[in-house]
Design a protein that fits this description.
Length: about 130
């Protein structure tokens, strides 16, 4: 699934990821003389999904920290010729020829887990 598909399907997860990414961008500005007003404007404006999705597709591993912060742990393993992934110590099928393919697959699973964690539990109807 592409980055834009993940952001559209898992809207609560997308909010968390967007906010995390914005804070990281703002943190990177701490070393320069950037006015607080500009930082606040960045927070209010946020980042558009089409731009965020390009970054997800190009470099899915940039999301490892945000998932770690939410207690969703992704591991990528290599055995000769094959990359495998696990999320929270559960192996993900299938196996992949490249690390990036394994990362993209693991990120998709992590989005789903984060969405589940963020969604309010439905009350049982008796």
């Amino acid at each position: 699934m592409s980055g834009i598909d993940l952001l559209n399907k898992y809207t609560a997860s997308a909010e968390v990821i967007r906010a995390w990414f914005m804070e990281k961008m703002i943190e990177s500005l701490q070393t320069s003389d950037v006015p607080e007003e500009f930082k606040n404007m960045m927070r209010e404006t946020s980042i558009e999904d089409d731009k965020l999705s390009v970054m997800i597709d190009a470099n899915p591993r940039m999301l490892l920290d945000v998932f770690d912060d939410n207690e969703i742990y992704i591991s990528i393993f290599y055995t000769p010729g094959i990359f495998m992934a696990s999320v929270n110590q559960i192996d993900i099928k299938p196996k992949f020829n490249t690390r990036k393919q394994a990362e993209l697959n693991a990120i998709e699973v992590a989005f789903e887990i984060l969405e589940y964690k963020l969604s309010p539990e439905e009350e049982e109807i008796n």
